[in-house]
């Protein structure tokens, strides 16, 4: 075969394989919906026509401000100082809880309040001392729930969540929960059906694994095992004073 013929053959082969891969990629369920806005390419923007358009809602930027650090939780919007105007309580990520005037974004006198932790949660209002005035509660990364008065003073009263030891491989054995954008997480009957099926499967597996016989404590059957060697005998205490005995089979 001459070199030009080989070259033509290779080009045809590459085109054929690329078309096959293109068909396979189009079969993905995530490609069923098209991003229509992206398909338009670069729009032809008419600045004069753009000036004549307006938002269907009467929205405008009233103010903007800076806080001490990044914000990873939703701010609390409430009238914290009872002046009839809404305020914005911002949980900064590191060390500070800030309070801003809702009308202009200015810092409320006495704020920000300092704490010695980081924050991933939104603040809320709760009357911890039962004086009729709700304080600002904030859960921190250290497992503490702190309370701040409307003046910015951090109260000595706080709640502490006790620490617990967590195994390094705590996630091993959990059910897989893949992210699937084709299933919405609100009012989706398919999610309910899948959850019901998984629950029934896990229950069937549990019944199959726990089908060994059990004996009441003090029963003659259990006492008859007292003469056996403990090696190779696995005992597990269950609820209601039931002991389940499993003797592994040996070949």
UniProtKB/TrEMBL annotation:
Record key words, sorted: Membrane, Signal, Transmembrane, Transmembrane helix
Top-level division of the source organism's lineage: Eukaryota
Cellular component per GO, a single term: membrane
Subcellular location: Membrane
InterPro entries attached to this UniProt entry: FAM234, Integrin_alpha_N
Membrane topology (UniProt): Single-pass membrane protein
Signal sequence interval, chain numbering: 1-22
PANTHER family named among the record's database cross-references: PROTEIN DEFECTIVE IN EXINE FORMATION 1, PTHR21419
Name used for this protein in its record: Uncharacterized protein
């Amino acid at each position: 075969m001459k070199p030009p013929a080989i070259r033509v053959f290779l080009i045809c082969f590459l085109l054929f394989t690329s078309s096959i891969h293109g068909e396979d990629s189009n079969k993905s369920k995530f490609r069923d919906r098209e991003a229509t806005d992206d398909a338009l390419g670069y729009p032809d923007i008419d600045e004069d026509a753009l000036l004549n358009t307006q938002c269907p809602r009467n929205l405008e930027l009233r103010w903007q401000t800076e806080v001490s650090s990044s914000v990873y939780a939703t701010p609390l919007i409430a009238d914290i100082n009872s002046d009839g105007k809404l305020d914005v309580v911002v949980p900064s990520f590191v060390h500070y809880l800030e309070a801003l005037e809702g009308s202009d974004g200015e810092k409320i006198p006495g704020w920000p309040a300092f704490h010695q932790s980081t924050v991933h949660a939104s603040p809320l209002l709760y009357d911890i001392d039962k004086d009729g005035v709700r304080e600002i509660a904030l859960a921190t990364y250290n497992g503490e729930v702190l309370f701040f008065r409307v003046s910015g003073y951090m109260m000595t009263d706080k709640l502490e969540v006790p620490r617990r030891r967590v195994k390094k491989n705590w996630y091993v054995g959990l059910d897989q929960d893949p992210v699937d954008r084709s299933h919405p997480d609100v009012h989706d009957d398919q999610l309910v059906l899948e959850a019901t099926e998984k629950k029934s499967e896990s229950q069937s597996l549990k019944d199959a694994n726990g089908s060994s016989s059990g004996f009441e404590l003090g029963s003659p059957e259990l006492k008859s095992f007292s003469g056996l060697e403990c090696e190779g005998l696995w005992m597990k205490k269950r609820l209601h004073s039931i002991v389940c005995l499993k003797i592994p089979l040996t070949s």
